[in-house]
Amino acid sequence: MKEIFIVEDDDGIRELLEFLLESQQYVVKTFPTARAFHKTVPEKVPDLFLLDIMLPDGNGVDLCRELKKGDETKRIPVVLMSAHADISRTEGADDFIAKPFDVDELLQRIEKQFA
Amino acid sequence: MQSNDEPAIGGSGGMGVEFRHLLDGSPVANYICDAEGRLTYFNKAAIELWGRTPILGKEYWCGSWKILYEDGTPMPLEDTPISRVLKKGVEEEKSEIRIECPNGAYKYLLVFPKPLFDRNGKLEGVHCTLVDITEQKRDHIKKETLSAIVQSSDDAIISKNLQGVIASWNRGAQEIFGYSEDETVGRSITMLIPEERLNEEDVILDKIKRGIKIDHFETIRKHKSGRDIPVSITVSPVKDSGGNIVGASKVARDITARIESQAAMKKYIRNLETLNTVGKSISENLNVEGILQRVTDATTSLTGAAFGAFFYNNSDDKGSTFQLFTLSGAPREIFDHMAMPRHTDLFLPTFRDRKVVRIDDVTKHGDFGKNAPYKGMPKGHFSVVSYLAIPVISKNGAVIGGLLYGHPEAGKFTAEHELLVINIAAQAAVSLDNSKLFEQVKSLSEKKDEFIALASHELKTPLTTIKGYLQVLSKKKADKVSQLFLDKSLCQVDKLNTLVEDLLNMSRIESGQLNFNLEVFDIREMLKEIVETFSYSSQSHRVTGTLWNDSVIIEGDKQRIEQAILNLMTNAIKYSPKADEIFVDLEVVGENMVVKVRDMGIGLTEEQRRQLFTRFYRAEDTQGISGLGLGLYLTKQIIDRHGGSIEVASEYGMGSEFSLILPLAVQKLKKVKAI
Q1: How far apart are the first and last CA of chain A?
Q2: Which residues form the PAS domain (chain B) (predicted)?
Q3: Does A27 touch chain B (CB under 8 A)?
Q4: Which value does ipTM take for this structure?
């Protein structure tokens, strides 16, 4: 069973993602802030990171850059999400999903990362 | 008593024939009245003088048609000299009367009435001799009038002989040159001429001797006090009765006022021109420093100040300093190691009390030298004696700052300078207010863009959740009605998202932050997909695509161009509610590709066509069709920024055709192929 770490500050979206991914048999762990995320990572790492870009205490793009540098994390796929559909700022990530997303498309994109 | 042998000219008057002959032939007018005053004799000369022939024995005292006093009022007959002599029986001195002839001519006469007595000494009548003095009288009046004119003239009227010696001097000459008649008559005219102009007199006299008049010669003469007087002089030769030139008459007019008014006019025009250019340049300028520098430069030059400066009124509660902002006529370095002017007694009135301060000699002024620690001008400060300070006052009454001028000499600034600078300062204040307003609007606009960016992000967050759950729900088995409602809800969520996205894009365009990810791609492929998707999703309209028979390669932001085309197609469907088909064509024309989107809808009026691409514009009769009015604005912005254009052909009620034109990426493609 693949494990996915989600960083998303909005409760509604976090719960939705948790529900969607768990219903697809993924193991999901969520973090509301970058700080909470850092308490776990890189000691524990998942099979995929799903990161929101705008966080109250940080930025998904920075987190992604960090992960791609870390020895334990650099090979783990990172998917970014944002309500600001600005693709130019997502270099380094493996994929980008614009909010609001299409549920099927989101699941397909994540599945693709494990193919 | 009338003689029958010699017909009388005008009666016999009781004279003997010989005596009568004597009088008849006399060139002097004579007549005689009897004791009752009846005319008994008059001679030819009298008829000529009166201009009429009176009736003998019927008319009394005089043969004149009308007798007048010297001032022209009628003289009653009983008041005539003859009537007086007859009444009193005493001889009278000659007296002067005026008469009017029947032809309207006036004559002046000297009357010599003499009483006639018979042998018994009884008064028998009066003999009167009339002498016509009209000519002399007129000459006299003319002379008196001329003299009065000369005397009353404001111009100096002077006569001189050919040696330049003054012969006459009028009141005007006294007024202009300050000398009385006694001081000048008999002296040389050169007393009025400044030394450096003495040769002028030689030239003038030379011309006069040759009979040439000098007309309106403008020069300088000297007042008794030594002051120069600008004058315009006209000199004419004076001839004696034999036609010989014996002297000159000179009319001099003081033209000080004229010259002053000319100079004032010139200055006024120059000032006006400066005011005009300054006004124009400051009102065109929205940049604070530009406005103030221009104002400082212009006013420094206008006032003739050695230096001029604008100081911002940075006064806080402590009232500490002003901030030098612009400087003219002096290097800025001077101020570098100097404290800014402070709330001293000299500056306070301008910066706090909005007062204009103009001082001829600031070093002698009561408010000077009270500024500790300098007690006057700081060391290294350029010398300021003349001082002028004018506040620049904002519309709200606050002193924005002060314009300060200085000059090392005393008394350099006049009331006129003061007025000029006040005027310019007022204009500058308006411009500064506008500039401030402009800055505020700009900052508000930036805030608005920030807000829209933030708001759209915040709006999208709940949209994401709503859309997600709705999609989850619509996958579950549900009854038909629930399914229909879910689909409708999802459709509305997408619409809402598009609106939010449009708003965000608009604010990005406004703030110049709309970024493009350029790539070279085949727009025919893109259109194929779009047409397919639309045909599948649109339930109301068919989409008929006529696409170019080959690849059409362009360079651009694929996503944005797709958005532009989708906007046009969505509009085509939206604004043709009664039609069931829209058309999409792709063709290549020259070096451009053209995408045409055509509908058979309500069409556009000319007015609507003109406003179509303006932000938030919505045609008036589109009630019931939703939108923010941003779609076409964004579409045009996207296409413009790709170096393309949008054209619209439409007739009201006959549908519309939008053509989206973009340059082909021919050159770029060739390069790509070469690699």
Answers
A1: 14
A2: 15-54, 142-211
A3: no
A4: 0.89
Please report which helix (H) or strand (E) contains residue B99, including its range: strand B95-100
The yes/no answer on whether domain A3-114 falls in CATH 1.10.3720.10 is no
Residue B354, both tokens: 């909005």
Whether the per-residue pLDDT at B92 is higher than 70: the answer is yes
Half-sphere exposure of B533 (CA within 13 A, CB side): 11
Report how many Cβ contacts below 8 Å link chain A to chain B: 55
Q: What is residue B28's three-state secondary structure?
A: coil
Q: What is the pLDDT of residues B268-279, one digit of tens each?
A: 887 778 777 777
Q: How many CB atoms are closer than 10 A to CB A104?
A: 10
Chain A interface, mutation test: which of B452, B459, B465, B486, most A Cβ atoms within 10 Å?
B465
pLDDT at position B95 over 70: yes
- B463·A99 Cβ contact <8 A: yes
HSE of B285, CA atoms in CB hemisphere, 13 A: 20
Tell me if chain B has a CB within 8 Å of the CB of A111: no
* Residues 6+ positions from B298 with CB-CB distance below 8 Å: B274, B277, B278, B424
Least confident of B37-41, B229-233, B622-626: B622-626
Q: Give the gap in angstroms from C-alpha B569 to the nearest C-alpha of chain A.
A: 22
Contact A35, A46 (CB under 8 A): no
- The answer to whether residue A71 neighbours chain B at the CB level (below 8 Å) is no
Which of the residues B471, B489, B508 would you substitute to probe the A interface, choosing the one with the greatest number of A C-beta atoms within 10 Å?
Answer: B471
In chain B, which residue's Cα lies nearest the Cα of A106?
B468
pLDDT per position as a tens digit, B517-531:
888 999 999 999 888
Residues in B closer than 8 angstroms to A102, CB to CB, are: 467, 471
- Of chain B, the percentage scoring pLDDT greater than 70 comes to 88
Asked if A19 and B457 come within 8 Å (Cβ–Cβ), the reply is: no
Cβ-contact B392, B310 below 8 angstroms: yes
Asked if A87 reaches chain B (Cβ–Cβ under 8 Å), the answer is: yes
Q: How far apart are CA B347 and CA B389, in angstroms?
A: 8
Domains of chain A: which residue ranges? 3-114
Domains of chain B: 17-139 (3.30.450.20), 153-254 (3.30.450.20), 265-514 (3.30.450.40), 518-672 (3.30.565.10)
Indicate the pairing of strand B29-34 with strand A95-98.
Answer: unpaired
Percent of chain B with pLDDT over 90: 15
Chain A residue numbers touching B498 (CB-CB < 8 A): none
